[in-house]
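[09:14] KT: can someone run the structure on this one? pasting the chain below
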Amino acid sequence: MPIQLATEVRDKDGESCGRISRLIANQTNRLIEKAVVRLNTGREVLLDADMFSHDEHGQLQISITSRELEKMPAFDVSRYYALHPVEWQEEWGVVEGEILALYPPQDYDQTSRRRFIFGSLAIIGAIAASLAYPIFRYLVHPLTRKLSEAWTRLIPRQKLEEDMPVFIPYTVERVEGYLEQTITRGVWLIRPSRRLSEQIARHPENLRFPGAGWANEAGAPVAFSAKCPHLGCNVRWVGEDGEFLCACHNSRFKLSGELISGPSPRGLDTMPIRSRKGSIEIMDMEFRAGISAKKRSA
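[09:31] RB: done, structure tokens below
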């Protein structure tokens, strides 16, 4: 049984002494090497993973006493950096706390880091000075180019049922400078009931797209971007709860796209949609994350 975050820890004598508050991972072999115990007194101490075992009742136990724990030095979190929880939560059962990894010695040495940074900046500055005009052209061009107004045909995997979201993937061709990319995206498509249409229409920004000079047709399906407006993680539909959920930071949204709770600064973003010759088409758009206003970025 692996060591899991938030698990109660008992000492050598079987007495409760604290809980696992952080895990120290080796990113090379994906193994837990150490664990941090937050003692009942509030201090955190670092222990090797081999000091933990499970007793006959399946409870996590360490091989030393609480008195020995209290004599250990406090855990220094500044020597570690946090790993993204989504990458590790399924493998190690993360529920609360942090997964950390140790800084390489050269990264922790602040004097060496400063020398490296200043040296790198000097080299970059010299290169940039010789290539100033090409770099300027490359950086300014995206700010002056017109945003795409191309329509993309969607192929629903199934017939749209009223008020039942269906995730539809699609691809778009993007040109960034000299780089051409085929990008896979997705939208949540809904054929709204009259009641749901009225709820969505209460927010004018849902169905107007000033940057495209076009608005959704009356009675057309509604397309919600699959990206959470918080930091751009993908949202999923939780049918049993009747809500959209962003698992990254637990933002929750109504079927109408309205924000229920979580750190997202706004509700789900809609995209222009229309029906043509029996097909459904959308205008691919991206919107700035982390702000309350719905502003198109691509």
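[09:33] KT: thanks! The helical segments are 66-70, 85-92, 105-108, 110-130, 132-144, 194-201.
[09:34] RB: yep, looked fine to me
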